[in-house]
Amino acid sequence: MSRRRRALLLAGLSLLLGALAASEVSGREAEIERRVGSSVKVVVAVKAIGRGRTIEPEMLALRELPGKFAPAESFADGQQLIGSRAAVAIPAGTDLQPALLQGADVGAGGALVVTGANERLCRVIVVGDAGEITPGSRIDLLITRDTANGSAATRVALRDAEVVEVEPTSSVAEGAGAGLPRVALALRVSLQQAVLLAEAQSAARELRALPRPPAASP
């Protein structure tokens, strides 16, 4: 065998071995990803954050984790957290989660919703059209109850309440409210209002949202 043919044979063999090695590595990577999940970005505290401290950009960073090991409720964008406060002391290296932040909840799409010390997010299912009520809009909320004599009484339960989230719902009702469109809302309310709404959802005949025009004042 000539030197040229031997060189070509060795080159071909090297390419074949390289392809086989690359295929094996790719297969191992696919198997690892199948077991632990794709990498996800998670916001982490790069320095210790004291309880009650306001979250600032320099306190945060992003790191990648296998999906299997990422917290169930984590954040992929540090901008979501700026301005919120730590509910507990947060050690450096901790993955940020809503439970670690004061008055925080995870909204649609993983967005963080921060409420004040006396504010709560209250979720209710009401009569209303999802096409007329949007996040950031404001509503009045009516509660209709049955009275002792069998009639119905309606009153204004909330005025100018802020809508944080809106989701269509398949919930249905019987009686006079049957067939009316319903929507699930997350409202920013006071603790006292949250208690009222919780009681109303179990005892009232109907909760109805009345959208306010964008330019309307309280």
Record keyword descriptors for this entry:
218 residues, alpha+beta, Type Iii Antifreeze Protein Isoform Hplc 12, two-stranded antiparallel ribbon, 2 helices, 32% strand, elongated
What does it look like?
The chain has 218 residues and is α+β, with helices and mostly antiparallel strands. The protein has 2 domains: 76 residues, Alpha-Beta Complex (Type Iii Antifreeze Protein Isoform Hplc 12), CATH 3.90.1210.10; 93 residues, no CATH class. Helix content is 22%, strand content 32%. The chain is built from 2 helices and 9 strands. It has a 5-stranded antiparallel sheet with strand order 5-8-7-6-9, covered by helices on one side. It starts with a helix and ends in a 7-residue tail after the last strand.
Question: Which spans of ≥5 residues are poorly predicted at pLDDT below 50?
Answer: 106-112
Distance between the termini: 95 Å
Spatial shape: elongated
N-to-C SSE string, H for helix and E for strand = HEEEEEEEEHE
Indicate the radius of gyration in whole angstroms: 28 Å
Rounded mean pLDDT is 75
Arrangement of strands in the largest sheet: 5-8-7-6-9
Q: What percentage of amino acids are in beta strands?
A: 25-35%
What is the helix fraction of residues, given as a range? 10-25%
**Number of DSSP-assigned strands:** 9
Structural class: alpha+beta
The DSSP helix count reads 2
Mind summarizing the main beta sheet?
A: 5 strands, antiparallel
